[in-house]
Each structure stands twice: as C-alpha cells, then as structure tokens.
Inverse folding.
C-alpha cells in the first residue's frame, strides 16, 4: 500500500511538472541576446543563473495565473510572493494620472510590481517602461512599453513610446535603467537617464517620485562589483 502511495505521489508531481508552461527560458534568452558579453557566458554560469532566479518556480507561478493579464495579474503575483507593502505618502498622489511615476532601483523586479500595482490601484490603466524581456510574459504584455536595454531600440519601439508619451496614460519608469550597485564604497543608483524629463516637458507630464528603502544582498553586490554583470 505504501509503495502504491509513493508511486501516486511521484506520478502526480511529474504530471504537474509536465503541465507547467515554459514562459521563461534563460538559456534561450541569453543566446538570442544582442549582448556579446551574455553570449560568451559558459553553460555552467547560465545554469547557476537559472537556479538563482528560480526559473522553474517562476514558470510554475505564471502557469497558475495564466488567466490573469495586465493590471489583474499584479495583485495576484504580489499575493503569491507574500509581499507585505507599507507605503508612506500615498495621499500625495495627484488626481490627474498623466505623469511619469519614477523611482530608484535598489532591488529588481519585486518593487516594480509594487510601483505598478500602486499606480494601477489609483488610476486604473497605465504603462510601464521596461525591458523587452517582460513582453515574453503574456500576463504583463498589455502593460509594458518595451525597450531594448542591451542594444538599439527598433523603430517600432520608439514609435510606440512616442504615442505613449502623448497619451493621457500614467507611465512608470526607473530612470537608472540598472539595479543599484557599489560605487565608491556606497550602494547607489547609476546616473539617471534624463530623457524622460524632456518628454515630460514636451507632453506636459508631471513627474512624481517614489523612493524604495532597502538593498540587495552582499553576495549580489559582490558579484556585480567583481564581474560587472548587468541585472
């Protein structure tokens, strides 16, 4: 009886794994990248990256919430990751959402979820300027205005961005472009790209700043400092 029970458990686990859709495949993404540095990464390094970001878990979560798209997906993934959010000054958000909502870049994807979900809860529809990799996730495709952070942006991306700037939709943006790193013994953002300021003036958009407290692990910053790996 015990042997049958064990066989059933193994069969069930295998079935769940087989039903998980592969939304993210780091190996394929790196090899298809325009970055010469990324393409030179040996396979064992790519394997370590897959483990660190928990590729299998990400694909499992995305499969579970396959029916939730755009602003409906954001609260689900925050709940799934058990993220507790404390926001100060939310009452200061303007009633008119035609703004650039910008923030520092201390962690990575997690607080991108927090920023976008906060804006979505206040204004409804919005767009997030983000890495084109996010468009590979169908759940996020409706709310992402894609940019190529590794190479030249195609004309289509630039055209769509210009249309977005001219619209009344709220826009979230991380002007640093990269996660905070060690610079002169301090962990700080890289210099903010100033292009959004020109667009704010041209299209009469207010700029609303957010500030996220915290930092990544010492291991993370040690790897970035020594190997200068983009994240």
């Amino acid at each position: 009886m015990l042997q049958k029970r064990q066989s059933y458990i193994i069969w069930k686990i295998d079935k769940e794994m087989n039903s998980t859709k592969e939304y993210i495949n780091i190996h394929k993404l790196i090899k298809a990248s325009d970055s010469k540095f990324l393409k030179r990464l040996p396979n064992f390094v790519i394997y370590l990256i897959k483990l660190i970001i928990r590729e299998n878990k990400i694909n499992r979560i995305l499969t579970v919430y396959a029916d939730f798209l755009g602003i409906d997906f954001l609260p689900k993934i925050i709940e799934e990751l058990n993220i507790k959010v404390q926001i100060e000054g939310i009452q200061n958000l303007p009633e008119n959402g035609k703004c650039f909502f910008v923030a520092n870049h201390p962690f990575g994807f997690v607080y991108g979820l927090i920023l976008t979900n906060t804006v979505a809860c206040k204004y409804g529809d919005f767009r997030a300027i983000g890495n084109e990799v996010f468009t590979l996730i169908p759940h996020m495709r409706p709310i992402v205005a894609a940019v190529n952070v590794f190479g030249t942006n195609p004309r289509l991306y630039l055209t769509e961005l210009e249309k977005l700037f001219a619209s009344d939709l709220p826009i979230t943006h991380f002007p640093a472009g990269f996660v905070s790193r060690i610079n002169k013994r301090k962990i700080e953002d890289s210099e903010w790209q100033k292009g959004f300021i020109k667009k704010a003036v041209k299209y009469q958009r207010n700029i609303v700043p957010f500030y996220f407290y915290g930092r990544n692990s010492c291991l993370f910053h040690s790897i970035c400092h020594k190997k200068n790996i983009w994240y």
